[in-house]
Design goal:
Layout: H1 3-6, H2 14-20, H3 41-44, H4 46-54, H5 61-75, E1 77-79, E2 86-88, H6 92-103, E3 107-112, H7 117-129, E4 133-138, H8 168-177, E5 182-186, H9 192-199, E6 204-208, H10 219-223
Helix pairs in contact: 5-6, 8-9
């Protein structure tokens, strides 16, 4: 089997889930479980699955985080009396607070986009009210001109005006300097979020994923495939490099 055919494709199990309400990896009974697809990572990557899981059951910080994350997942739901159904009860903000508290983390860094300072102010107030110690660093800290990145004037959002460059590495290093124990991304651009996560010493979670068109709700595009966003299956996204 070629490497290409071995590439994981768990998205293909969507049809199985919709039909059966379960997949092979979700079923506790192998005798009644739906079959695995040919490129199921439970088969093609079983060695990595087992090796990785072993890291959750030692005495490392990764193991503690995996345990607490699983515990928070359970706390997110509450049973419906007289039924086997469960209702979700916590928002992502509450999940994040619960994780920080159970991990014993107090100083929380917020790497914010300048376009979401209002939301960051509200998040800071909530974290403080919960007994945490938030600090926030804006992407434009330092106010260094985008032209110093080597961009042309035409590459700016508004050519002919001053536009400071985003500096996610500085955001991470400032959080590092002030000893944050967990960092939260609030609306950083694609790529900038990667650099922030790469240079952050503390674990990073994303609370707001930037999407300028959908009000920072990028999953809306996936729900709109039969309407406006169907174009994404028909037309290439042009970057000017074609």
């Amino acid at each position: 089997m070629s490497d290409e055919k071995k590439l994981p494709g768990c998205a293909a199990c969507s049809a199985v889930w919709q039909k059966n309400g379960t997949t092979n990896c979700w079923s506790g009974d192998p005798s009644t479980a739906p079959p695995r697809p040919a490129n199921c990572p439970s088969s093609t990557g079983e060695d990595l699955v087992r090796e990785s899981f072993a890291r959750y059951i030692d005495d490392s910080e990764d193991a503690r985080l995996a345990f607490v994350a699983a515990k928070v997942e359970g706390l997110c739901y509450q049973p419906v009396p007289g039924s086997d159904a469960v209702n979700a009860r916590w928002t992502r903000v509450e999940d994040t607070i619960a994780l920080a508290k159970l991990m014993g983390w107090k100083r929380i860094g917020i790497a914010t986009c300048i376009g979401l300072l209002y939301e960051t102010e509200k998040l800071t107030a909530i974290l403080s009210a919960q007994g945490l110690e938030p600090l926030s660093v804006c992407c434009k800290a330092g106010s260094i001109d985008k032209l110093e990145l080597g961009l042309a004037e035409a590459d700016k959002v508004r050519p002919g005006t001053f536009e400071p460059a985003c500096n996610p590495i500085a955001q991470a290093e400032l959080c590092n300097r002030h000893g944050t124990e967990m960092n939260i991304i609030v609306g950083l651009c694609v790529g900038h979020d990667m650099l922030f996560a790469k240079y952050s010493k503390a674990p990073v979670t994303t609370l707001v994923c930037k999407d300028r068109v959908t009000g920072h709700n990028p999953v809306a595009v996936l729900y709109g495939q039969n309407f406006y966003y169907k174009r994404l299956q028909k037309q290439p996204v042009l970057t000017g490099k074609e």
